[in-house]
């Protein structure tokens, strides 16, 4: 739905005034409520579905397979209903999300590497059923939930197996390294280490000299610039990048003081979101 | 591009009287003709005004790693504006194009008409790749029926050069050296297409929409007159012409072979059919398959008799391996 | 040779069902109420299909407009994680295109498109988990999605698959039965006991067609009843909301 110039101007004035008035009565640093479910797909190792009040809805499924450990360990794909496969948005989202997950040694180094030769390849596949504002935020929440619910089969200890085998027979190096897994799914181990939480992403938009977090589609229309922030290990961390939300033909920039303000907005609301996502399990 | 309203109305009127413009009855197909070319695996098919040429070619390739014992078989269809202006590239008429190539694929490849394992030369290393190229010269409906019959006739006509293995090397024997071998075709799938045409609402029937119209007799094909659905009279027409195809809504395509096997049924929309009606259609498709199979085999026999007149076994001047430029 | 005993002499299938038993069938309407005008979810065993319907609305492209009736457009998305081994599907795969074309044609008969000329109805089907043939799940989900969107329709189309183990037709086959046996998918309109959709693949003996179809039509009837019940539940919940 396109807004008229008058409506846009009204929105801009109310957002830049003091106090900031947002159309859905949130304050500048307040996120929209989201709803999530986990373990919804029987064919995956972990899955989640997240919905936002504007009708955005996405489903994430995680699957793993054993590969050579020097191959890429994490794959991310994003499929958005209504957009073609070669569209820029899903591809750029997949790249950003892969970058974020690749920079989590807690997953890549600790959980995915089986031994010197083999590792798990984790495929994180996102399906966006519908969206109206930028789908990055709900996607990151869905990936958060899906990774938290992901379990990998328990690796059988090679020593344990050896007891039953003929010890006199020497095994070739290759043979010793082929990992064996427990068939019992109740023995499976969680992907995420105890106490560690996957990263979350937040979008902050700047309108004149105010910043608002988690903008709606209309707020993005009047924003001069938008950026996304990564929240990882209880602090704001890389990547932090400007985002083209399509409101302006060029990529807008944040003034330094706005950047600091945006930074603190994320710092304020991220722990709460993280907590509520964790408690929903 | 499309026909005029007057033409369409006329056709509907004629059909409502139980006639077809080309004097066929609703359940009559046009005569199908096969003309085999000079080269092996070349056949021209005529179905009424629909004309197409199929050319089979073979080359040696590495098999897929997932199926090391199987050869490769591809069918390409080239439905361009040469056949009919409506197939012009880039227009939205992709539906019929995709449907035709999918139907041929389902009827011939998926039903295992060509024994892929017989195309293996050295397991995992070398196999024959058979390509069937279908070129459409003129379009007047019945694309699926004509192409299926054309591809299978061409496969039966094709001869593959004999091969032998000498240690590591594969030797492909020239046709003058050893007689070429026929492809191992396991069965002959023949497709039949019916389209459904809704005739204008009958004034008398419009009132009793949802009445007992749906419980009419099962012998659909035979009693076309009493077929009402939600007050609309629908008829089924075998082997439609281009115009009949254009005014139709929904179709049923059945592929059968002479072993009384149904290789494929595709029916989406059109008319509601009871299980015995589907059976009736299948039975008819089977009858037509018998006739066309017989015809293909007769024509093939005739062609090979012609070829072998000199009693040399094969025509030495022709090379069985139809060269294709390297892609 | 098959690794599985598809149909035991005692009359049991790989998953312990009898020949005429459906898998657990669950469906719901309005599952994505904020995301689209109509939505539905269908689970058949472990298969799961989500449908969202947008429209009738103004066409995004003028060229795809029909001045006499609404244009029905179906997109089928198969999620990469839907099968046992992960496979990425692209929307221009011929098989998916054929599937969406078949769905469009099937529903063209029951959707009263002439009531909303110059509009389009976009149906997005998301296959989230596939166990066996996806066609039946897509038909059921699309039917409920269209009903939830309030698109005027003549009747339901309920669909179910059948696989043939020699002479025994097996209702609602799972993926093992589907990959080993010839199978067909049947869609039945309303209570007519007649098929509006028949898709068969691989070779089936002609004389087995009728018993298989009869079994499938019977299965569709059960599916129709379950869907009908869910539609009524949804309707009542909407009514309650209006009264309040």
UniProtKB/TrEMBL annotation, chain A:
GO biological process, one term: rRNA catabolic process
Listed GO MF terms: mRNA 3'-UTR AU-rich region binding
Highest taxon listed in the record's lineage: Eukaryota
SUPFAM superfamilies in the record: Ribonuclease PH domain 2-like, Ribosomal protein S5 domain 2-like
Compartments it resides in: Cytoplasm; Nucleus, Nucleolus
GO annotations of cellular component type: cytoplasmic exosome (RNase complex); nuclear exosome (RNase complex); nucleolus
Keyword Protein transport tagged: no
Chief place of localization: cytoplasm
Keywords for this protein: Cytoplasm, Exosome
Gene3D superfamilies, alphabetized: GHMP Kinase, N-terminal domain
Family that this chain belongs to: Belongs to the RNase PH family.
Name the UniProt record assigns to this protein: Ribosomal RNA-processing protein 42
Organism, scientific name: Starmerella bacillaris (Yeast)
Automatic annotation (TrEMBL), chain B:
Biological process terms in GO annotation: exonucleolytic trimming to generate mature 3'-end of 5.8S rRNA from tricistronic rRNA transcript (SSU-rRNA, 5.8S rRNA, LSU-rRNA); nuclear mRNA surveillance; nuclear polyadenylation-dependent rRNA catabolic process; rRNA catabolic process; TRAMP-dependent tRNA surveillance pathway; U1 snRNA 3'-end processing; U4 snRNA 3'-end processing; U5 snRNA 3'-end processing
Single GO MF descriptor: mRNA 3'-UTR AU-rich region binding
SUPFAM superfamilies tied to this protein: Ribonuclease PH domain 2-like (SSF55666), Ribosomal protein S5 domain 2-like (SSF54211)
Pfam families xref list: RNase_PH, RNase_PH_C
Entry's Gene Ontology cellular component terms: cytoplasmic exosome (RNase complex); nuclear exosome (RNase complex); nucleolus
Every Exoribonuclease phosphorolytic domain range: 29-161, 237-285
Subcellular localization: Cytoplasm; Nucleus
Bias (Polar residues) ranges: 309-320
Keyword match RNA-binding: yes
Chain segments carrying region Disordered: 307-327
Keyword Ribosomal protein: no
Keywords, sorted A to Z: Cytoplasm, Nucleus, RNA-binding
Family per record: Belongs to the RNase PH family.
Protein name as it appears in the record: Exosome non-catalytic core subunit
Native source species: Starmerella bacillaris (Yeast)
TrEMBL record, chain C:
Gene3D superfamilies named among the record's database cross-references: GHMP Kinase, N-terminal domain (3.30.230.70)
Exoribonuclease phosphorolytic domain segment(s): 21-152, 155-215
Keywords of the record: Cytoplasm, Exosome
Gene Ontology annotations of biological process type: exonucleolytic trimming to generate mature 3'-end of 5.8S rRNA from tricistronic rRNA transcript (SSU-rRNA, 5.8S rRNA, LSU-rRNA); nuclear mRNA surveillance; poly(A)-dependent snoRNA 3'-end processing; rRNA catabolic process; TRAMP-dependent tRNA surveillance pathway; U4 snRNA 3'-end processing
One Pfam entry name: RNase_PH
Subcellular location: Cytoplasm; Nucleus, Nucleolus
Family: Belongs to the RNase PH family.
Oligomer status and interactors: Component of the RNA exosome complex. Specifically part of the catalytically inactive RNA exosome core complex (Exo-9) which may associate with the catalytic subunits RRP6 and DIS3 in cytoplasmic- and nuclear-specific RNA exosome complex forms. Exo-9 is formed by a hexameric base ring of RNase PH domain-containing subunits and a cap ring consisting of CSL4, RRP4 and RRP40.
The name this protein goes by in its record: Ribosomal RNA-processing protein 41
Organism: Starmerella bacillaris (Yeast)
Highest classification ranks of the organism: Eukaryota, Fungi, Dikarya, Ascomycota, Saccharomycotina
């Amino acid at each position: 739905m396109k807004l008229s110039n008058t409506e846009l101007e009204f929105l801009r004035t109310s957002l830049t005034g003091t106090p900031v008035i947002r159309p859905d009565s949130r304050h500048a640093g307040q996120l929209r409520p989201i709803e999530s479910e986990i373990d919804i797909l029987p064919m995956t190792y972990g899955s989640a579905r997240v919905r936002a009040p504007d009708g955005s809805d996405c489903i994430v499924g995680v699957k793993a397979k054993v590969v050579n450990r020097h191959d890429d360990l994490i794959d991310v794909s994003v499929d958005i209903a209504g957009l073609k496969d070669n569209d820029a948005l899903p591809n750029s989202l997949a790249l950003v999300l892969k970058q974020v997950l690749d920079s989590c040694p807690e997953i890549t180094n600790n959980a995915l590497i089986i031994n010197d030769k083999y590792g798990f390849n984790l495929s994180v596949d996102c399906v966006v059923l519908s969206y109206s504002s930028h789908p990055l935020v709900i996607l990151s929440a869905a990936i958060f939930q899906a990774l938290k619910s992901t379990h990998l089969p328990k690796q059988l200890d090679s020593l344990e197996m050896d007891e039953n085998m003929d010890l006199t027979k020497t095994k070739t190096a290759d043979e010793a390294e082929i990992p064996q897994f427990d068939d019992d799914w109740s023995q499976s181990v969680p992907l995420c280490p105890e106490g560690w939480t996957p990263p979350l992403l937040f979008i902050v938009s700047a309108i004149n000299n105010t910043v608002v977090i988690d903008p709606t589609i209309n707020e993005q229309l009047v924003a001069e610039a938008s950026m996304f922030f990564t929240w990882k290990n209880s602090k704001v961390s890389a990547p932090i990048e400007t985002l083209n939300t399509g409101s302006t033909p060029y990529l807008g920039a944040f003034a330094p003081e706005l950047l600091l303000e945006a930074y603190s907005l994320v710092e304020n609301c991220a722990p709460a979101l993280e907590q509520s996502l964790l408690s929903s399990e | 591009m499309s026909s005029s309203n007057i033409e369409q109305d006329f056709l509907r009127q004629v059909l409502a009287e139980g006639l077809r413009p080309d004097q066929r009855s609703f359940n009559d197909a046009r005569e199908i003709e096969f003309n085999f070319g000079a080269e092996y695996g070349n056949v021209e098919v005529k179905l009424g005004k629909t004309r197409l040429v199929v050319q089979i070619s073979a080359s040696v390739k590495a098999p897929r790693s997932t199926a090391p014992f199987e050869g490769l078989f591809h069918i390409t269809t080239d439905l361009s504006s040469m056949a009919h202006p409506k197939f012009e590239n880039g227009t939205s008429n992709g539906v019929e194009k995709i449907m035709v190539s999918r139907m041929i694929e389902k009827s011939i490849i998926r039903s295992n008409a060509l024994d892929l394992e017989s195309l293996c030369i050295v397991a995992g290393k070398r196999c024959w790749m058979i390509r069937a190229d279908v070129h459409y010269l003129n379009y007047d409906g019945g694309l699926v029926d004509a192409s299926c019959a054309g591809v299978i006739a061409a496969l039966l006509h094709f001869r593959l050069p004999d091969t032998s293995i000498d240690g590591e090397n594969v030797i492909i024997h020239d046709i003058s050296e050893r007689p070429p071998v026929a492809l191992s075709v396991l069965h002959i799938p023949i497709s039949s297409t019916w389209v459904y045409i809704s005739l204008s609402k009958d004034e008398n029937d419009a009132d009793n929409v949802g009445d007992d119209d749906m419980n009419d007799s099962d012998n659909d094909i035979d009693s076309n007159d009493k077929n009402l659905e939600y007050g609309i009279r629908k008829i089924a027409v075998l082997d439609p012409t281009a115009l009949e195809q254009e005014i139709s809504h929904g179709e049923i395509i059945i592929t059968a072979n002479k072993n009384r096997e149904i290789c494929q049924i595709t029916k989406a929309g059109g008319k509601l059919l009871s299980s015995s009606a589907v059976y009736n259609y299948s039975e008819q498709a089977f009858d037509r398959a018998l006739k066309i199979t017989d015809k293909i085999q007769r024509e093939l026999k005739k062609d090979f008799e012609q070829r072998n007149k000199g009693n040399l076994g094969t025509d030495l001047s022709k090379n069985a391996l139809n060269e294709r430029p390297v892609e | 040779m098959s690794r599985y005993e598809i149909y035991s002499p005692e009359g049991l299938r790989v998953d312990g069902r009898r020949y005429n038993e459906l898998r657990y069938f669950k469906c719901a309407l309005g599952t994505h109420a904020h995301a689209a005008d109509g939505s539905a979810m269908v689970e058949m065993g472990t298969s799961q299909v989500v449908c969202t319907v947008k429209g009738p609305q103004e066409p995004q492209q003028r060229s795809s407009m029909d001045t006499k009736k609404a244009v029905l457009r179906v997109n089928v998305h198969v999620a990469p994680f839907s099968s046992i081994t992960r496979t990425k599907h692209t929307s221009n795969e011929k098989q998916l295109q054929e599937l969406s074309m078949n769905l469009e044609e099937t529903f063209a008969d029951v959707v009263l498109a002439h009531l909303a000329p110059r509009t389009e109805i976009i149906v997005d089907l998301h296959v989230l988990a596939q166990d066996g043939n996806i066609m039946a799940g897509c038909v059921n989900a699309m039917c409920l999605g269209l009903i939830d969107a309030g698109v005027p329709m003549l009747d339901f189309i309920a669909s179910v698959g059948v696989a043939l183990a020699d002479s025994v037709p097996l209702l609602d086959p799972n993926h093992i039965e589907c990959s080993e046996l010839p199978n067909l998918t049947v869609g039945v309109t309303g209570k007519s006991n007649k098929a509006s959709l028949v898709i068969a693949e691989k070779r089936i003996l002609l004389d087995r067609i009728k018993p298989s179809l009869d079994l499938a039509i019977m299965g569709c009837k059960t599916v129709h009843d379950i869907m009908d019940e869910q539609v009524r539940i949804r309707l009542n919940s909407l009514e309650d909301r209006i009264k309040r």
